[in-house]
């Protein structure tokens, strides 16, 4: 997650004091459900679900929805897991979404280890924990004795990551017959995360293929070297301080052996910015660089940006943001406000007020350390999520007051 | 052929018992209580996952299990701490029934579990399973709840009888296929139909488990099968396919020691039943060999296979479970 911003002083409470008092008791009330939450986390994490192969996780969620008393539970046409829990009045529709796909291939050992203080395994935080909480939410609400006025729509979305490009949630939102009044994206990490601004993101690959024909007049034998030239040129692109913009080069794939120069190389990169125009400009610059290098080195080089989210968000003064902050404060959760490339952008771009929340603390695998999430904070994370749903149910998803500063 | 008929009638798949709600209702109707025993020795990598999943699904969600307990052989890692943190009862085997002494070995834990745990049915599940799932328990207790004639249920894994390409071997482990099944075929032919006699997951009624002796070491599974068979016959058994089990693989040299221990237990049963006679006591030393830099070394392992007597003969046990039978 990107850096946090300082929390301005809050206007008077938008969530009823009685509700906040009730929310304070949730972590303790949820203790009897701890093992069920963890079991769900372990079982979901152990199901491999790379992009496009989420069927088993979808089945798992649907089974859990049914067991939790969700009358309407089915996979939609795109393959998303969808459950609908009707409210008492049904005057609002609240959408809870967690993505089901992971970056890990099926062949990887997905077995999970549970230690006294943490759960360790591929993708436990991103996003097995989020999916585990959404799958168990009907049972959590029942356990806490909560009956909502609003309808609750639970979504386990497929094809979110990489080339999936949010295909699952896009399909769902584009084809849902009802309006969604408010959305919450549930991510495993980090507790305190509060995203209500979606940063613009473009992700894709630069591919380079060297042709072995002897007729090539000049150039290099190695696709890796050409990619290196392209990287150096991308590093030379000047990036403004404002609007916030970054080019990240996160993946590199090339070669099969020490003594064979690769004839194919790939560079995975992303451009993130608060400005969609800036992303467009940088995309144009990279396209020019790739085209020039392609010609100069007589290779086939291309830029393929397959993932795109638009920048946008709701204002800090929005009742939803205020409501979330009050819920967090009541649970003594330190908010970390930043932007998110998650499903949030799909909701925001359709004018649906939405936030992304995290459930626990942990780490995504870096420097060869495995992914983990801490167990202790999970109940506070779930309490926070239920508290936010209650706040929305009581009206914290309406329009902000007129003239409110963004 | 009796064993073929038994194989057909008493071989189940865990999916036969997917309706856990029904199992719970039927268990309660019969007034049965069920205890899960997890024998451990340094299993910190897998114990947390096993307890979390089995407790959540089979105690919290569906109250099939009345008790979940770890019986530990003296772990030096965090096994006991992790088990306790997720709500399992933790017993150190050496701290209980101290008047009976203490011996190292999984069988010792299983034997003492009869005293420590309270269920009418005891389910034993090894703790090195990486892909633990509730089926490892409900698949084993299902036949016991369903049929009062079944007293002991054994797990087997994969799908041993048929595949899309036709028949294939049963898929027992190496020790099973080259030692146990040939021995069963020779001396207890009906027991050869038990597909994976050495699997570490099984469930039994207290009423039979308390009647048999428990080898404390490698021979505990084989000893149980033979002793229950001799008392109740083949139809006291059932077996359930639990699909896949992922666990640590043992090296061949370790399997050799295991085979030695199992063989000693087997021979003691043959001798007891007067099926064979030995001119002298069998040795307890297993000899194996290794080579390093062209130097050959003999490795000796002492594998004694001590047997615990039937628990029903232990005074403290009778006081706890059969107080009405105590002399006035």
Key phrases:
heterodimer, A: 406 residues, Aminopeptidase, 2 domains, nine-stranded mixed sheet, four-stranded antiparallel sheet, 17 strands, B: 328 residues, alpha/beta, Spore Coat Polysaccharide Biosynthesis Protein SpsA, Chain A, eight-stranded mixed sheet, 18% strand, globular
What can you tell me about this protein's structure?
The complex is a heterodimer of chains A (406) and B (328). By secondary structure, chain A is an alpha+beta fold. Chain A has 2 domains: 265 residues, Aminopeptidase (3-Layer(aba) Sandwich), CATH 3.40.630.10; 110 residues, Alpha-Beta Plaits (2-Layer Sandwich). Helices cover 33% and strands 25% of the residues of chain A. Chain A contains 11 helices and 17 strands. Chain B is α/β, with parallel strands linked by helices. Chain B has a single domain, classed as Alpha-Beta Complex (Spore Coat Polysaccharide Biosynthesis Protein SpsA, Chain A), CATH 3.90.550. Chain B is 38% helix and 18% strand. In chain B, strands 1-9-6-7-5-2-3-4 form an 8-stranded mixed sheet, with helices on both faces. A two-stranded antiparallel ribbon of chain B has the order 8-12. Chain B has a two-stranded antiparallel sheet with strand order 10-11. In chain B, helix 7 runs parallel beside helix 10 and helix 9 packs parallel to helix 10. Classes of the chains: A alpha+beta (406), B alpha/beta (328).
